[in-house]
Amino acid sequence: MVTALAIAGPVSAQVQEWPTEKPPRPLPARQSSFPAYQIRTLPNGLQVVAVSHHEQPAVSLRLLIRAGGSQDPANKPGVAYVAASLLDQGTTTKNAEQIASTIDSIGGAIGAGAGSDITFINAAVMKDSLGLALDLVSDLARHPAFAPEEIDRQRQQILSGLKVSYDDPDYLAGVVFDRLVFGFHPYGQPDSGTPESIAAVTRDDLLAFHKRWFGANNAILAIVGDVTSEEAFSGAERAFGSWERVALPSVKAEEPPPPTRRVVVVDRPAAAQTEIRVGNVALPRRHPDYLALDIAMKILGGEGGNRLHRVLRSERGLTYGASADLNALKEAGDIVAETDTRSEKTAEALRLIVEEIVRLQQRRVQQHELSDAQEYLTGSFPLTVETPSAIALQVLNAVFYGLDLNELQTYRERVNAVTVDDIQRVAQLYLHPDKLSIVLVGDASVFAKDLAGVGFDQVERIPIGELDLASADLKHHSAPRPGRLEPVVFRQPLQGTQDRVRALISRAIDAKGGLAVLRSIRTVRMESVATVQSEGINTDLPTTTTIQYPGSFRIDSSTPAGRLVQVFSAGRYWVQDSKGVHEAPESMAAVIRGSVQRDTVPLLLALMDGTVSATIGETIDADHKLATLEVALPGSSPLTLVFDPSTSLLARARYRLSGPGGDVNVEEIYSDYRDVKGLKVAFITDVRRDGAPAVHRTLRTFEFNVPVDSALFTKPS
After folding, report:
1. Closest residue by Cα to residue 263 from 459, 34, 54
2. Can you say whether the dihedral through the CA atoms of 446, 452, 456, 462 is positive or negative?
3. Which of 640, 646, 704, 709 is nearest to 669 (CA)?
4. How many CA atoms does the CB half-sphere of 230 hold within 13 Å?
5. 431 and 537 housed in the same domain
6. pLDDT averaged over every residue in the chain
7. Could you give the CA distance from residue 146 to residue 144 in angstroms, rounded to a whole number?
8. What percent of the chain has pLDDT over 70?
9. Checking DSSP bridges between strand 109-114 and strand 119-126, what pairing results, if any?
10. Residue 620: in which H helix or E strand, if any?
11. What is the CA radius of gyration of the chain?
12. If we measure between CA atoms, which residue out of 321, 314, 298, 449 comes closest to residue 379?
């Protein structure tokens, strides 16, 4: 034995740790400075921020109203959310279709929304359409119609979205965590409301919210892009100068409750994973310690650091990812660490998260950890000021939160000035390991018994069907509902034709991948082979399709006559072939416009948002009656969508095409659906013209949210 040890000693002493080389250091941060800006307050109190950015002939508008979910009426969360969803759905002079047509006609984009502290309207247009865009944004902000039929439609869409969300453990963990941290403070209520509160919102609520908060002296307008300051200010004066002021109420900001230890388990029987949220109340955005605490969170669980990811994934293999964030709002904020893990590993993952929070609070971080986080923030800063929209967002944040705008110019210097001592100080001040709010959403029968062993013996266990965010103990105090969280609003039968339309659209979106997935899609790249069948001859055309939503489409095909490029962008259609680059004739442009309108993802979203109308119908398929949607597309022939009754996935699409030889009935048949990162994609499409086979298309690859060069859609000179 002694001999064996003597032999083994020198050998083990020579073993080197792997890897033997450190990863390369990041490249030096490229030089970047924040563009020059000017701020002017109009006589009516509207603050206007002008930023000149001449790299592209485009202008971005962002109008921000200082009121959001935290200004909702008591016991009725969601009013601001509903009001914002209706801003671009009709004014006193334009209906939703006219608004959509106006912005589409200039190749622009417009949208509205609401958060905890703000309501916003965004628009992006080419420079020569700035005046029209200013008028449109002004009209949306000042003269919303809040038409009863639009209110009903939006209410049903929001309720459909909430029904999906209430089956999503990630959503449940988030709203319950907010409720634990902020209690009955307005930040503790979900901005999108609850099913009960959304069902109770009335037109009078929306009118009252608009009248109370929508005024020039409670708004900020950012105009960023290929425009001079004087052009921006004069345009704002013309479009918004007559906007009235409002008498703002003097509201004293509520203080959130102090950090309190509370562990809530939302029991979802048979769940394979547990969603975990751990954290406590923190500081508002304007606080002088914000930057140091934000960097501390980057070290704990963010970009450039992420101890949680290393421990939970790399070392223990408990999860695919873990993170920690500082969410700083106007009046308060919170710190939250989050992950998901296998049900049986819940207690272990929770223990490790808490241990890392304790470690960050009690032990000084290493200088290299701080440097890594700083290098990430300073290196990524140029990406936050690359586009007019990104610049507008930075300026608006600074103005809204009352920050020194000069800090935008010195961001990198301020990040690099944070020291290890600063990190330790803010960690000790704002982390409260003994007073953490903890939410676990999963199958309690698997992990609840293990929680006491990792230090959590006082746990509130709430069956999913009894969860009530409006209750102090988060429980319904009526007969429990088995199995799932389903508020009474969801269990009321749908009535009427429009309700059947909405239900069918909602099922189709859920089957496709869910509303959140569809709304997240910004780009698509796919490779396919289209087999064209004509006069008994089959010709294979390898094709690459590139899409940059909302309005840029490119198809590259290899044909017997050579390479063919077809591009539809900003309302224009051009072709590149063996004869060169040229605008397509109107007949071809009409065909491609119709194809763009029939693109499944934006079409389903347009149906959900009500910007495209539809009626319910039925068709006979294999002796079965199937529900269909009869869709009215502006400027195109009607479209019939047929859905598979068992999966709710789109099975067929039927429409008519006009051509030199007359109208042709076209049917597209979709099959071989596959899951691509949560999105269901038909890998085979068969196209029939007047009943005869015309094209058989097979997808080879499909990717979405991949980098796409905007130059692909620019017509060569």
Report:
1. 459
2. positive
3. 640
4. 0
5. no
6. 86
7. 6
8. 88
9. antiparallel
10. strand 613-621
11. 28
12. 298
Check whether residue 612 and residue 571 sit in a common domain.
yes
Task: Name every residue whose Cβ is closer than 8 Å to that of residue 563 and which is 6 or more positions away in sequence.
Answer: 556, 557, 576, 577, 578
> Interior CA angle at 132 toward 128 and 138, to 5°?
140
Please tell me whether residues 514 and 468 are part of one structural domain: no
Both 276 and 234 in one domain: the answer is no
How far apart are alpha carbons 104 and 570 in whole angstroms? 8
Whether 54 and 198 map to the same domain: the answer is: yes
Closest to 631 in 3D by CA, of 659, 658, 602, 660: 602
If one counts the domains in the chain, the total is: 3
Whether residue 7 is predicted with pLDDT greater than 50 in this model: the reply is no
Tokens of 349: 């993952």
Average pLDDT over residues 433-459: 95
CB atoms within 10 A of CB 308: 27
Q: Is residue 257 part of a domain?
A: no
Question: What's the pTM value of the predicted model, to 2 decimals?
Answer: 0.66
Overall size of the chain counted in residues:
717
Under a CB-based contact definition with an 8 Å cutoff, are residues 53 and 385 in contact? no
- Name the H helices within 96-251: 96-105, 130-142, 148-165, 169-182, 195-200, 203-213, 229-240
Residue in this structure with the two tokens 């000149």, named with its chain if needed: 52
Q: What is the pLDDT of residue 130?
A: 96
**551 and 461 belong to one structural domain:** no
Map residue 112 onto helix, strand or coil.
strand
The verdict on residue 8 lying in a domain is no
Q: Residue 126 sits in a domain of what CATH number?
A: 3.30.830.10
Q: How many CB atoms lie within 10 A of CB 635?
A: 10
94: containing domain: 37-162+185-246
Of 483, 461, 490, 455, nearest to 474 by C-alpha is 461
Contact 341, 318 (CB under 8 A): yes
Tell me, yes or no, whether 564 and 684 share the same domain: yes
The whole-number pLDDT of residue 589 equals 65
Tens digits of residue pLDDT in 473-500: 888 765 544 444 555 444 444 444 566 7
| Tokens standing for residue 216 | 């020039």
- 323 with 211, same domain: the answer is no
The Cα 268–Cα 356 span in angstroms is 27
